[in-house]
Amino acid sequence: MKLYLESSVFNFVFADDTPEKREITKIFFESKSFEFELFVSDVVYDELSKTKEPKRSALLGLLSKYPLTTLVADEETIGLAKEYIKEGLVPEKYLNDAVHIAIAVVNKLDAVASWNMEHIVKMKTIIGINQINSKKGYKQIMIITPEGI
Fold first, then answer.
1. Could you read off the pLDDT of 117-129 as tens digits, one per residue?
2. DSSP letters along the chain, please?
3. pTM (two decimals)
4. How confident is the model at residue 85, as a pLDDT?
5. Which domains does the chain have, with CATH numbers?
C-alpha cells in the first residue's frame, strides 16, 4: 500500500502534551511504517521547516530517517485542492490541508495518514472528497489516523 504522511504525523512523535497519540505515532514509525511505501510532499517539508528550533531539526531528522518518496504540489494538485475548498470540505484558510489530500489523490496513493481531526480526518471531509474524486475520475482515498493503521 502507498501511504501519504501528512505533517501532523511527524509532529506527534514529539507531542509531549498528548502522550497517548505520541506513543501510537512512535509505534507506527517503529513497527508499522515498514509495511507501506511511504510518501510525503514538498508541502510537508515546508510546513515542518517553519517550526522553531530545536524541534525543526528533530522533525527534519525524522524525515531523513525513513525511506520516503517526496511528491510535489503541481497545478493539477492545487486545482483539485481548490475544488475541495470550493465545496466547503476544507476552509480556504487551510489550503495546505486540502493540498495534502490532493497530492495523494493525484498520485494514486491508497491512503493519507493524519492526526488533523479538524480538517482532514473527518467524516464529512472524507465522504465529500471521495465524491469529488469520483466525479473527476480519480480513485477513492482512505484517510486515517496512525492509530487506525
1. 999 999 999 999 9
2. -EEEE-HHHHHGGG-TT-HHHHHHHHHIIIIIGGGSEEEEEHHHHHHHHTSPTTHHHHHHHHHHHS-EEEE---HHHHHHHHHHHHTTSS-GGGHHHHHHHHHHHHTT-SEEE---TTTTS-HHHHHHHHHHHHHTTPPP-EEE-GGG-
3. 0.96
4. 98
5. 2-148 (3.40.50.1010)
Q: Which residue has the cell 530517517?
A: 65
Place of cell 510535489: 72
- Which contacts qualify for 11-17: CB closer than 8 Å, 24 or more apart? 11/48, 11/51, 11/59, 11/115, 12/115, 12/146, 13/62, 14/55, 14/58, 14/59
Task: Output the CA torsion sign for 13, 17, 19, 20.
Answer: negative
